[in-house]
Structures are given as C-alpha cells and as structure tokens.
Fold this sequence. Notes:
Number of helices: 17
Number of strands: 18
Oligomer: single chain
Helix content: 25-40%
Strand content: 15-25%
Distance between the termini: 40 Å
Radius of gyration: 23 Å
Structural class: alpha+beta
Amino acid sequence: MGKIFVAQLLGLPVFGPDGESIGKIRDVVAGLRVDRQPPRVLGMVVELLTRRRIFVPMLRVTSIDSNAITLATGSVNMRHFHQRPNEVLVVGQLMDARVEIVASGTQAIVVDTAMEPTRTRDWVLGRVAIRERTGRLARRGPLQVLPWAEIRAPGITELAGQPQSAHRLLAVFDSMRAADVATALQDLPAKRRYEVADALDDERLADVIEELPEDDQKDLLTHLHEERAADILEAMDPDDAADLLAELSETYKDRLLELMEPEESEPVRRLMKYSFDTAGGLMTPEPIVVTPDAPIAEALARVRNPDNTPALASMVFVCRPPSATPTGRYLGCVHIQRLLREPPSDLVAGAVDKELTSLRPTDSLLEVTRFFATYNLVCAPVVDDEEHLLGAVTVDDVLDHLLPEGWRERANA
C-alpha cells in the first residue's frame, strides 16, 4: 500500500477477514505533533450499520484498495468514538483549514491530505494538497501537493493540548521502538512519566506498557482514568492484558473488565481461566487463521499484516469456520516457508501440515518448552479436546516466562 489520499477513503465499505460487513469509513484520525514531522495516522472512524461511529486502529487494517478496506479481525471495539485532545479529524477539522506555505508565507486552503506508510508499521500524513487563497477565487487557484513540513497550520496544532513539559520527549519517542521507550520511561520522574503517558495515543501507550516490568505496568495503568485504562487494555495483546489484570486487585480488575467492550474482554476472560504457566495462559487468542478453501495468496496477505509479530507470522492455522477462536475444527497448519514455495492460486488445503501435533491448554510450561525444542518452532497451536483452535503460543512468550523474574529491570540497567 502506497500513498493514499484521505478523500478517496470516505464511504468505502469495511470488511472483516471472512468478508463480513462492518461499516463504512467516515473519517481518519491523526495524532498531532509539536514539531514539523508529519502527524501519525492513528486509525479510522467507521460508521456501523446502526449509525454508531467507532474507532478502528490502523494496526487492525490489513489492506486498503479502491473498493474496500479489510481488517485483520472481525472483532472491533463497539464503544462510541470520542476524540482526544491531541487528535485531529482529517476530514472534519483539517479539510478546508487555513494554512500558510512556509517558504512564501502565502495563505492556502487544505483540499486533501495523503496517508503514507513508513518503514515501521505506521502511517503518517506525509503530504497535503492545498490551493492558494487568492481573494474570491481562493478555491480556483492552482492545486499544490506539498510535504507536511512545508506548511504551517497553527490553528490545527493548537488542538494537540499536550503538556508542555512532555513536548520534547514525545518528539524523541515517536521514532523509537516501544521497548526503548519503556526503558526511557523507567528513568523519568513519576510526574514526567505520567505526562508522557497522558499524551501518547492508546495504541502506542499499550505497546509501551507491554514492554514494562509488572510494577511499572500497574503504576501507569492505575494513574489513568478508569475508562482510558480499559481502552489501553483493549489495545494490548489479550495475553498481555490478562497477565496485567491478574496483578490487580479483584475489585479493580472486575471494574476494568466491565468497562471493556464485550468483544475485547471475552478473549481476555478466557485466558484468565488458565494458570499463567500453562499453554492456555501463555497463548494469544488471535493467531492467523484461514479456511481450507482460501488461496495461498490470501494466507500470504494475512502474514504480511504488520500487526503480526515475526513469531506469529511464521505459521498459518487452517480451520473450519468460524475463523475466530475458538474456531471450527482444527485441520492443521502451514509454515511460512511452505506458503512461499506454493503457487499463489493454489488452495491452502493442499499445503496443510497434518502431522504436527498440538498443545493442550493445560500443558505446563515445561511441556510447552519441550514441544518448541522438539519441533524447532517459534509458534505452536493450542487445541482443546473437541479439536477447536483456542490460540497459539509464540516463543517470545515462552522466553518471557523462562527468564528470571525482574529480567526487564536487569536488562535495562
């Protein structure tokens, strides 16, 4: 996916991975910055069939084409969209906004903006289409497409509302990996750490919290307002959210689970039924799942989704519908190497590895470790007694539990 002008997205239908209709695009949400760097695209405002408008993070988007937008999962947060102080609605607030061309000081009107993917898995508003204001013919002036850094939009950037003391840190953190941001946050005074947490968008803060030691995770989560804490848990990987909730008091844990959308809390509740040191407690309930009649090309497209970790992308699981966990009958798996060797038009069913055994949710950490070592895996299926796929365990989660307690603090020292 290359450069995409936002106006082209309006009204496009949004589908889940199995082709289920979710809604239509009504706007794009971007996070404002205090420097000249392009704003990061946070997600899209999707209008459901019920007319409710919800927020879908960009990390959930698998593909964007001229006819439709496809999500990596059909499970979306049904909470009504509410704009945060440091966010801007591209269509609702940026379109038709008055800006100034930096080089000439000429006044102009924003006609459209272009989303561009970065080398990481982010999207930014890299370019702006403008028309110079020339009296009555303002909208008939020449159309120019300029890099974001070449315009000045003071009226828009004032919407950021970020704490002044956190400005420089946010600009620095924007280009850093979540694990490195987590390391830097541990060295900050509590007041500054909270300012940064308040200013980060939900997806970014969720990524950072996942990389923090348990005590720091609890500290940041309890600092947040309850509703935003629930939003952060929804944005986290379900297995990480379940681990964090397990460290909280029963009252606070139950309160946050109640505030989470049922579609988001249900997989977390399922994971919390298992002990943390079993396959069920280690697994993620969102592996890559396709049906046997899917073409190889579709499986490869799912693998390429940047929302997947390298370990999770190493294997595709083939199941009967439904494809959301717990799935229909589990048929087997296909390794990424096999997918790359097969013709894209062939069906996944012809490449399924039916010989690899599966983990059971009650298998101990030792049994899981032996399974990974025996079969040289970085990702493994977890299947129940009725042959439904419940999730997948990845090697990073196994290592996280094998390393000594507090390894993150020692690694960061």
